[in-house]
Amino acid sequence: MRWTLDQLQQFAMTAELGSFSAAARHLGKAQSAVSTAIGLLEADLGVELFDRSRRQAQLTDAGQLLLMEAQELLRQARALDLRARSLSEGGEAKLSLALDEALPYTAVSTLIREISRTFPDLELTLLNGTATEVADYVALQRAQVAFHFDRGPVDAGFEQRCVGGVAQGVFVASGHPLTAKQPVSRKDLLRHRQLLMHADDVNETAYSPKVWRSDSFYSIAEMAAHDLGWAILPVNVAKDESYRQQLQQLSCPALALPRLSVRMLWLQGMPLSKTAQWVETRFGQLLLQSPG
Questions:
Q1: For 230, phi and psi rounded to 5 degrees?
Q2: Rg (alpha carbons) of the chain, rounded to whole number
Q3: Which residues belong to any copy of the HTH lysR-type domain (predicted)?
Q4: Distance (Å, whole) CA 34 – CA 37
Q5: Angstrom distance (rounded) from CA 116 to CA 243
Q6: Which option is the CATH number for 168-250: 3.30.1120.10, 3.40.190.290, 1.20.1250.20, 3.40.1000.70?
Q7: What does the pLDDT average to over 68-90?
Q8: Is the pLDDT of residue 90 over 60?
Q9: Position 226 pLDDT exceeds 80
C-alpha cells in the first residue's frame, strides 16, 4: 500500500469537478501532476478509476465504489487533524459529567447541545442519578464534575461551588383535601403525610409527624400524584408533563421556601479544566433562565 492522502484528495476532487484540468486548477497543481498522481493511485490499487475514452473524467464502476472509501478516509483524516489541533491549543480530550436526574430538563438539554457546538472534538460521557449517586460518581472518579441539588454538607474530599438555584414549592395530588383551603398553614400540613427527600447523612425538615421517604424527587412526585401525601418538590419536577395534570401547587407563605441550591462538585486537589469552567458558567446562566 503506497498510495497517499494527497492522491486520494486529487482523485476525489477530479471525480467531483468532472475533469483533470478543473481539479488541477482547484488544487493549484499542474494538470500533468494530477494525471500522474491518479495514474500512480490506479497502479497501486490495481484498478482503473476513470474511463479515459471519454472527454470528461468519467468514473468506472470500480472508481465509483472506491470513491466512497476515499471520501471516508479523507473525512477521517480531517477529523484527526482538527482534533489534534484542538488538543495542541489546550483543548480537552474527554469530559465526564454526572447530573442530578431532577435538574431542569430544558437547562440540561440546552447545555448538552451547546457543548456539542462549542467543543465538537470533545469525548463526552454523561452519568445520571440521584443527588447522592452523582456525588459518588465523582468520589469514584467515574465523573470529573457533578451538578446536583444541595442536600447538605459533603465529604471533605470534595471541592464545591454553588452555580444557581431552582424554585421549589409544596405540591399535592389534584383533589387532595389540602387543595380546598388556600393558603395553607403549617398546622394544616402536619395533619397529612409528608413525602420527604432522603439522602445519606442529611436530615430534611419534617413538618408532619407522619412521613414517607425516598432518595428521588421523581419517586416522591409519583407518590404525591397518587395521593399518598404532600411534598416539597422542585417546580420543574412537579410540572414535568408526567405530573402536570396530576399535581397542584399549594400556597404556604409560612414555609417561605427559598430556591433550591444547585452546586458543582469535583475532587479536592483536581484543577478544573477550561472546558469544565465553561460548563460551570454556562449552566449557571441556563439555570437563571429556567422557568419557575
A1: -105, 155
A2: 30
A3: 3-60
A4: 5
A5: 30
A6: 3.40.190.290
A7: 76
A8: no
A9: yes
